[in-house]
Design goal:
The complex is a heterodimer of chains A (295) and B (326).
Chain A lengths: L1 H5 L4 H4 L4 H11 L1 H18 L1 H4 L31 H37 L1 H16 L2 H12 L3 H28 L2 H8 L4 H37 L11 H9 L7 H28 L6
Chain B lengths: L8 E13 L5 H5 L1 E13 L3 E5 L6 H8 L7 E6 L2 E2 L5 H8 L2 E4 L13 H11 L4 H14 L16 H13 L5 E5 L7 H18 L2 E5 L3 H7 L2 E6 L2 E7 H6 L4 H8 L4 H5 L31 H5 L5 E4 L2 E3 L6
Parallel strand pairs in B: 3-8, 3-9, 6-7, 7-8
Antiparallel strand pairs in B: 1-2, 1-4, 4-5, 9-10, 10-12, 11-12
Helix pairs in contact in B: 4-5, 4-6, 5-6, 6-7
The chains are: A mainly alpha (295), B alpha/beta (326).
Chain lengths: 295, 326
């Protein structure tokens, strides 16, 4: 045993150990990442399989069955219109989760492109872009979202656009800083001397090297995006009735909080679980993808 | 050392200046100029290794980067085979740059950590539109030329040692079949035992491919070993230039004398006492009038502050910028 351990490592084994497999291996050992991923996967499975789990239509009203407490027929009870809460929570989860995902993806793409261009170009162009970004950042997020939805009009799509605009400066700043740092490294100079133009350098050298930060950022902001989407839904600027969405359901329930707790508790628990799940995942990913942690 | 040095210049640098800053709205911003390279004139001959030495901050790396147009020269010209590189832009610049490559000091950050070696070496070929089959063949040939094995191609940079990475950087530069290579302190980040291997590789490659090197270093013994001629820089200026043996035996400029006397064991070999320089290198923001070295020179006289000594040919093939050199 002792001899085997002191032998030089077989270097043919190294070839298979790419950074990707190393990080995947490390990821499984990370507890909060595993827990967060588990929560998110279970929630996603529940909302995707909604038609299998409940036979009710989330929009179907039933005047005879209003305010029913949780029972075998309605595991999460019914609401003021006699709609099945479980169907509303599960179908509503689809909207909330997809909308938050759309928000971070759109914000990430736009912000990353702006940050790359500003960081790589530098000079007057970079300065102009970043001051515009600072201007956006100066507004309190939710206020900006309200203002944008007030201009565009209420609705889910407009809400998604509004919130992704709030995220743009967050990504732009992160990516701009990282881009400036990477741009000064010799491998970028080497690429330029080899004949690479700015777009090639950004696409092949800078983007892959900032991607892990962008992914970490995306998971940490996914929870915030979900909160903002539900906030817009809650105040009636997001999805419009009768479409279910966690924020809108919570708003339906808050009027009857003392009368029918299940109308608020179930969507609330699902929303909290989702946010806890993505935050745990974000924390874990940050640890795993952080380049300062050695292999 | 280059075996086939010819007398014609591959690269002709004329009065090259690279300044930083000096731009802006305010007068104080415009006055704040760092003269990193301040009027260098130099011919690099086809097939030779020109060593460039000097203290940190003397502008030797900036000069190398300016030759690759990684820095934009403010004034002067860089003729590469008769074409002016200093003013080329866009496609023209890319075409000219194909014949010149660079080897960097830091073997860690000169390779993209997210790329496999195969992709790193092939990068220039991909940009140049070389078909995949030909590219793969070239890359496999190159990795063996620099002393690594084909199976190394599918690994990432972090799996290699500093010396191996430097070999990969050399293979990447060679892939473009350059005529001229700027080696910017290529061995200073390596262990001494690895240094000589990489230096020998560089001179073997020079013989096989007829390369011309600008070899930038601060290690004087490394430069002596590899160079045909040596240039000494001080505060953005070239202050002495001569054949290696001549320069090391008879330095004419006091700064070169001080620099050479700082080589360990030289005192014992030559019997000359070590020259200890007083003070620091003046700031390139505010260089002294006249001779840049006069503030630290033990031979400085009033004339040194008034007129700047030009680089002149004191002896055949031995140039120095000093009023007292003879």
């Amino acid at each position: 045993m002792a001899i085997a351990e002191t032998l030089p490592a077989d270097d043919s084994g190294l070839a298979a150990k790419t950074p990707l497999t190393v990080s995947v291996l490390r990821a499984f050992r990370h507890r909060s990442l595993a827990a967060g991923t588990l929560i998110c996967v279970v929630l996603a499975a529940l909302v995707i399989c909604a038609p299998l789990l409940t036979g009710f239509d989330p929009a179907k009203q039933s005047a005879m069955e209003t305010f029913q407490a949780p029972s075998l027929a309605h595991p999460m009870g019914t609401d003021a219109f006699g709609r099945d809460m479980m169907a509303r929570v599960l179908y509503g989860g689809r909207v909330t989760m997809l909308a938050s995902l759309a928000v971070v993806v759109m914000g990430a793409i736009a912000g990353t492109i702006l940050g790359l261009v500003a960081g790589y170009a530098g000079g007057a162009a970079g300065f102009a872009i970043m001051r515009l970004v600072d201007l956006l950042l100066a507004f309190p997020g939710i206020l900006l979202a309200l203002a944008i939805t007030a201009i565009l009009g209420p609705g889910l799509v407009n809400g998604i656009i509004a919130i992704s605009i709030i995220l743009v400066p967050v990504y732009a700043r992160l990516v701009e800083g990282a881009t400036r740092e990477i741009r000064s490294l010799p491998f970028v100079d080497a690429a330029i001397v080899l004949g690479a133009g700015p777009i090639r350098v950004m696409a092949t050298h800078i983007l892959p090297n900032v991607m892990s930060s962008v992914i970490v950022m995306t998971t940490t902001w996914l929870g915030v995006a979900a909160l903002w989407i539900t906030a817009l839904g809650f105040i009636g600027l997001g999805v419009q009735p009768p479409q279910p969405e966690w924020g809108a359901i919570l708003n339906d329930g808050q009027m009857f909080l003392t009368l029918a707790w299940w109308m608020t508790v179930f969507p609330g628990v699902f929303l909290s679980l989702f946010i806890i799940g993505v935050n745990l995942m974000g924390d874990g990913l940050r640890d795993v993808l952080d380049p300062t942690i050695a292999d | 050392m280059g075996k086939h040095v010819s007398e014609d210049a591959l690269v002709s640098i004329r009065d090259l200046k690279v300044h930083y800053g000096g731009k802006g709205v305010l007068a104080s911003q415009r006055a704040d100029v760092v003269r990193a390279v301040d009027g260098v004139t130099l011919d690099i001959r086809r097939g030779e290794t020109l060593g460039l030495v000097g203290e940190s901050g003397c502008g030797k790396s900036t000069l190398g980067r300016a030759l690759m147009r990684l820095e934009d020269p403010r004034e002067g010209s860089i003729l590469f085979e008769g074409e002016d590189l200093a003013k080329a832009r866009g496609q023209k610049l890319r075409d000219l740059r194909k014949d010149m490559q660079v080897i960097f000091q830091d073997p860690m950050s000169s390779l993209d950590p997210r790329m496999k070696i195969r992709r790193i070496i092939a990068e220039g070929l991909v940009i140049g539109g070389v078909p995949k089959a030909e590219r793969d063949a070239r890359v496999e040939e190159l990795i063996e030329i620099v002393g690594l094995r084909r199976e190394h191609l599918d690994r990432y940079p972090h799996e290699f040692s500093g010396g191996q990475r430097q070999r990969i950087g050399i293979a990447r530069a060679l892939a473009m079949r350059p005529k001229f290579v700027v080696a910017d302190e290529p061995v200073s980040a390596l262990d001494v035992s690895i240094q000589s291997q990489v230096l020998n590789l560089l001179s073997d490659l020079q013989d096989s491919f007829g390369l011309t090197y600008l070899f930038i270093a601060h290690d004087l013994s490394v430069v002596e070993y590899i160079s045909d001629r040596v240039g000494v820089m001080y505060l953005g200026r070239l202050v002495e230039l001569a054949d290696t043996a001549d320069l090391y035996a008879n330095p004419l400029m006091p700064y070169t004398q001080a620099l050479l006397s700082a080589i360990p064991d030289r005192e014992a070999e030559t019997g000359e006492a070590r020259i200890i320089l007083q003070g620091d290198v003046p700031s390139p923001r505010n260089p002294p009038s006249g001779c840049p070295f006069r503030t630290r020179c033990w031979r400085a006289e009033a004339a040194c502050a008034e007129t700047r000594p030009e680089l002149r040919e004191i002896r055949p093939r031995h140039w120095a910028a000093c009023h007292f050199a003879e």
